[in-house]
Design brief:
Order of helices and strands: EHHEEEHEEEEEHEEHEEEEH
Strand order of the largest sheet: 1-12-10-8-4-5
Number of domains: 1
Distance between the termini: 40 Å
Shape: globular
Helix content: 25-40%
Radius of gyration: 18 Å
Number of helices: 6
């Protein structure tokens, strides 16, 4: 089964177009990222297991369903992943949130973990890693591996825009991880930015350069 899911919902596609626009300001950009994350989260959680329960309504007993099985955890990759957290929490207010920070070693060019704080029961949770841009895939792959090293067996990756190179990197390094994205772009430029992409997601979220 293909492990890559590209969203074609009209609302998501419309909001991605606004997100790409260089004239979209910081406030609007931040709101759009949060809104898209919430819309994507609806599908990312589609296969969560259910169990049947009995609920007493004002007029009788209803046999209905509630979520069962593994609880959810959300782990944004700092810093741009933070922009997707609020949207996910609006949908899943009881989810626990971890954080992971990486930097690239200037000599080896390999990702190095500088911060990782995960829920204490992380190995019992299904984890959704949040990263708006999947470019080379190096940072996302490293973050997933760092999380796996802490005993997590169920991980999904959610991003807004993915380059084909990043998708292939995750498929190669982590064939068990499903990738969810709203758009797939063809190429990277010499600075490893996705083209046409939307620029630097962290800078556009937080108004920095």
């Amino acid at each position: 089964m293909d492990s890559v899911f590209v969203f074609d919902h009209p609302l998501i596609q419309h909001k991605i177009s606004l997100l790409r626009d260089k004239n979209t300001n910081t406030k609007e950009f931040r709101e759009l990222v949060s809104e898209i994350a919430m819309l994507m989260g609806y599908e990312v959680t589609r296969n969560m297991p259910l169990k049947e329960v009995e609920i007493e309504t004002p007029v009788g007993i209803a046999k209905t369903k509630v979520i069962s099985g593994k609880k959810l955890g959300i782990v944004p990759i700092l810093r741009a992943g933070l922009g997707m957290v609020d949207g996910m929490l609006r949908l899943l207010p009881m989810a626990k949130v971890g954080h992971i920070g990486l930097y690239r070693d200037p000599e080896t060019l390999e990702p190095v973990e500088y911060y990782c704080k995960l829920p204490v029961d992380v190995e019992e949770r299904e984890i959704v890693v949040l990263d708006p841009m999947l470019a080379t895939g190096g940072s996302a792959s490293a973050a997933i591996q760092f999380i796996k090293n802490r005993g997590v067996g169920s991980i999904k990756l959610m991003c807004l825009i993915a380059a084909k190179a990043g998708i292939e990197r995750i498929r190669k390094d982590h064939p068990d991880v499903e990738i969810y994205c709203a758009a797939v772009d063809e190429v990277l430029n010499d600075h490893a930015y996705i083209v046409p992409g939307l620029g630097d997601a962290g800078d556009r979220l937080f108004g920095t350069k």
